[in-house]
Every structure is written in C-alpha cells, then in structure tokens.
Amino acid sequence: MSYNGIGLKSAKGSSTSGHVQRSLANNPNRRRPQGSQQQHPTAIKKASQDKTNRPLAVQKQMATHMEKREIEVQVSELRDRLEDDESLPEEQIDAQCKALRAKLTSEWQEQQRVYSLYTSRKTRLSEEQQLQE
Questions:
Q1: Region Disordered: which residues (predicted)?
Q2: I want to staple 20 with a disulfide (CB 3.0 to 4.6 A). Which of 3, 15, 86, 97 is the partner?
C-alpha cells in the first residue's frame, strides 16, 4: 500500500485502509526565506536560459577558443605519433609541429576572413540592437 516508497508496506493491522494522500504542507508557491539553499524552479530555468542567451561577443570568443584548441589538439596528435616513431630527432619533430601549426592557423585565419566578408541583414540589425541596449 505504498506509493513511491511513502506509506505503509501493508495495511494489515494498522486499522486503516492504507490510502496515501497528498501532503497539503508541501506548497510549491510558498515564499522561501532569503538566502535559502533551495532555488525556486523558475530561477533554475532562468539560469539555464542565461547560458543560451549569452552576449554575441562571448559566444564568438568561445567559438574562437574552441577552434584554436582544435588546432592545438591536431598538433599534439602529430607530436605523439612522431615521438612514438622514435626515428626522428626532437628538432625535426618540433619543426614539423611548427609547420603544421602554421598551416592550420593560416587556413583558420583565411576561413575567418571569408566568413567576415558578408553578414546577413538580420545579423547586422541584431548586433546594432545589442549595441544600443
């Protein structure tokens, strides 16, 4: 006769029917004291929405960081492969890693230049509105 682990395991000998009722003391609309550890569900929802509504500049910075990180991951993977090979001296490994980093960075910069050549009217208007606010 329990519901979600609440109530009697058996109504036998309890002089009750074992029916489990909703607690009227649990009112989600009551006010919580300031500084309480519990957050209101709407506050939790708002906090998660704030992450998606970050300013455009922050989103661009994060995207730039992730793209640069991807370049470094590729360079690191090349270095690991070359070091496992053990046939190349350290200077050649460094030179190949530098060359790959320079190549990937120049490709990324070219890609950024191409993307920045044109922005849609919708994007330009939204950026202007954000700057005015």
A1: 1-69
A2: 3
